[in-house]
Write a structure and sequence with these properties.
Length: 98
Amino acid sequence: MYSDPSAIGSSDTTDTATQEGLIQCCVCMENRETEYYPTIPITDNCWHPNLTCLRCLEYSIASDHSSKMWDDIRCPQCAQHLSYQNVKNFADENTFAQ
């Protein structure tokens, strides 16, 4: 039995990044502040939280663009297709210009 009532419900595995207001990117695994993440869904069909940081999202779009047709660029989290507007929203200038 616990002698310290404040210990009930606490866990040694609590994510300290979440406690500090940081989010762990599912691609690079770095803990970043919320302003480093998209504020809108990556695609019109994405219903998941945005756990891919903007840097990794730009890289993912650039990587897909270099190896696939422009209309086969996908969300790195759920594999939904990105529309032209989605690519415009998140791609870096050089990738979008191509």
